[in-house]
Amino acid sequence: MKQIQGRNGGTLNILEKGETANLNGRPKKLPGLDIILAEVLGEDKDGITAAKAILMALRAKATKGDVRAAEVLLERAYGKITQPIEANHEITIQYVDPGNYTYPAPHQNGDGIPESV
What we know:
Oligomer: single chain
Number of helices: 3
Strand content: 5-15%
Distance between the termini: 46 Å
Number of strands: 4
Largest sheet: 2 strands, antiparallel
Strand order of the largest sheet: 1-2
């Protein structure tokens, strides 16, 4: 790593080719998160797993009119609904030869100063 003086009095660190500033790399995901999650959702309480209790609570909210709860349940069961998009528009492309193109003059106010468009 090479250090040079910056414009504002600071020091800039310049990396050489193939050198990295992040020696440890990207941090790993939480250790065993998938195992912990499976344990938590698989725990029984009164003969019902946590995952089943969550689904039953979502179903109860959905039947009472909670649209978001119904959406979550249906998307988990059947997947997200695809929305077809129809495009029946004609597109015209005009090629302009860059060698023959003349740029328009900028807009100017009364002082001869170009206006922002």
